[in-house]
Model the fold of this input.
Amino acid sequence: MKMAMTMTREKSLKIFTLTGIYLITVFCFTLISALPGVGSELPRKLSEPESLSRTLLEKYGSVRDYTAVMLKQERIDGALNDVETIELKFRKPGDIYMKWVGEPNKGQELIYRAGRNGNKIIAHRGGFWSFLSGKMEPLGSMAMKNQHHPVMMAGVGPTTKAVLKDLKKGVKNDDISSRYMGVVDLGGEKAYQIETLFPNPVKEASFTHIAKDGETLWDLAGLYDIAMYSIYLLNKDIDPSDELDAGTEVIIPEYYCTKSNVYISTETMMIVKIESYDQYGDLYEMYHYKDIRLNVGLSDMDFDTKNPAYEF
Done:
């Protein structure tokens, strides 16, 4: 059973770490399909599918690494947490460094390198206990406490996955509506804003999965290519790490959220901000990547606990 569960979770990780190029391709054609009648309001590079696809693919394909300031806000158990400010370094294919530079969690650091360090997170808290660091399973209860997504989902590409997948599904099902909201100012950066409305998972868009013995919510997330936390939101009596008994009924949402706002930088043509709303119409999560610097030449030392600028 443990071997089967390990194989299933490895499959789940592969699904969660789809390449950014795939995500961009989905977004190109989904965005255009979901925005009938607004082409005249959009710049030419956004209104023509082939031009949009070429522009985004060429831009993302040339990105080897980047640094950014990540603003993160998530709703946990009904309460919207304070905005976290995080310095982020990312290098393809899956090297991540994060440092919390403001409250909450100021001084906290983590490093994750896909396939390295036993495929574990190395992290330490801020403040008095900053000298104590340890390793954690990315999907373990400690790493996932009060988090919507595992660390491998951090970054410009993976952050957009759920919304982009739902856009594609919604266009196919013809049950979503999208509109171009114009160019907005994101604190000094101009961005195109796209608003999309999805069916409510509680009232209109969910189905029931009958669990097999030993399955977890993480397994179901991988099986249906849905973010685990969106499943947990509809099944709060189930702990994500619990192994389910055969026959347990689990509600699976068709879509990740009921409304999303996607912001595309007018300068870099990268998705720099996403806002998602839950079935009650409340802000569910927000991720904003500011001050993005592309291809800065990050090295192995940027993802090493021995970096003298770090406090591991």
About this structure: The radius of gyration is 19 Å. Helices lie at 2-16, 20-33, 44-47, 49-61, 156-159, 161-173, 217-224, 228-234.
